[in-house]
Amino acid sequence: MSKFILASSLFAVLLIVAACGSKTSSVDTGKVIKSAPIGNLTVSLSSPSGQLKHGGDDFFVAFKDSSGKPVDVGAAALTFHMPQMASMPAMNDSATLTTTDTPGVYRAKANIETAGEWQTQVSYEGPAGKGQTSFSVTAQ
């Protein structure tokens, strides 16, 4: 059931992001929280403070090539996952991504349930091909 919910959430986010289209210009994404390779690109999470916060938080997700230039990846999705621990059930918190004036840079909004280490799952599909990755990140 958890995989179905995750897949449904990913599909819905992909549709929303794909429908938003892309624009031109640049946006200040703040300080990098964490970066990881994704296919032949790099994905970065960033915010003005350089931290990811639990509760309602706004941050940026950027896809860049090896020269650091943002790359339009089309539809993108991000989910935070924390596995079950003792009596606490597993948690999955999806981020809502919207396009910005810079193709390849997305404004993200998430309600991360609790502070601690989360497994971040990122995927994309579009003009840059298809890719997915996961990496850990700490919510303050």
What does it look like?
With 140 residues, the protein is mainly beta. The chain has one domain: Immunoglobulin-like (Sandwich), CATH 2.60.40.1930. The protein has one helix and nine strands; from the N terminus they run αβββββββββ. It has a five-stranded antiparallel β-sheet with strand order 1-2-3-7-6. A four-stranded antiparallel β-sheet has the order 5-4-8-9. The longest helix is centred in the first third of the chain and has 19 residues, at 2-20. The radius of gyration is 14 Å and the shape is globular.
What is the CATH class? Answer: Mainly Beta
CATH superfamily: Macroglobulin (MG2) domain
Q: How confident is the prediction overall: mean pLDDT?
A: 83
- H/E element sequence: HEEEEEEEEE
Oligomer designation: single chain
CATH domain fold name: Immunoglobulin-like
Overall geometric form: globular
Low-confidence stretches: 2-24
Keywords:
140 residues, mainly beta, Immunoglobulin-like, 5-stranded antiparallel β-sheet, 1 helix, 14% helix, globular
What is the secondary structure topology, with strand pairs?
Blueprint: H1 2-20, E1 31-38, E2 41-47, E3 55-64, E4 75-82, E5 91-94, E6 96-99, E7 105-112, E8 116-126, E9 129-139
Offer a concise description of the structure:
By secondary structure, the chain is mainly beta.
